[in-house]
Amino acid sequence: MSPSARIYLSKALSIMEKHSLLRHQVDWADVRSEAFSQADGALKPADTYGAIGSALRSLGDGHSILWEPEKAKENLGSSEVSPDGLQGRSLKNGIGYLSLPGVQGSQKTYDQYVRQGRAAVAKADRTGACGWVVDLRSDTGGNMWPMLAVVGPVLGDGKVGMFVDADGNRSVWSIKRGAPYLDGKSAGWDDSRPVAGSSPPVAVLTGDRTASAGEAVAVAFRGRPDTRFFGEPTNGVPTGNKAYRLSDGAMLILTEVKDADRTGRTYDAAIPPDEEIVKDPRPVARGRDDVLEAAHSWLLKQAACRRP
Fold first, then answer.
1. pTM to 2 decimals?
2. From CA 215, how far away is CA 220, in angstroms rounded?
3. How far apart are CA 195 and CA 197, in angstroms?
């Protein structure tokens, strides 16, 4: 192995050993031995990618990954937010509906997402929603903070969750005047316009595409009063990652924390809904959304939305 390849691989393994969520459960001598054996003969950093990927998989968190330079550039570049995925509207009987897709990209992308998302919330709340559907079924992850900046007024102010690392250290997520904060520091967006209802009932929709940061948003609603989950279990990676840029532009995306809800309960697997509703595969059900219908029915039975 060339000196440059050896230094590159050693640096990546050291980052994993120092920061990974499951670092106390890993035999690092074995991981290093296996990685250097796999990368034997490597001449340049790129020749060690396979060994780094294998080492990440051996951590067992199911979430850590290596982005090669082109992938890193693509994922972190500016992109347009799809108006079809991020939307708000009014449903029958005064129910507000908000759909949050995943978002990954530049700060420009995140700012656009927040502007569009807050406009969607305002649109859904135009007539004063008595309750809300928050649809996370297409939230495949990315950056959780723009998502919380959009849904914050519905979620409500106060502590909504936290990160917990391998040593049990906690970093608290909170909402203040509709905007997200981490350990009391702003996540980057100003206050949001409040919704009409005070602490409205909320139905959260999840599915197997609800992943990573999307699961963090779901966790933020866990333990919230007057909140119920509908649909299918989430993807199963409710953990937080941190990106480390390597010398050639590749990025080590390393899982470092578990998500925990406002009660302190941690999550590291698929999160089941309160009411599991599996999509009906029959052609007759093609245009029907049974999950949304169940959520809508539940909301109409809550005190805030019950009609005399």
1. 0.92
2. 9
3. 6
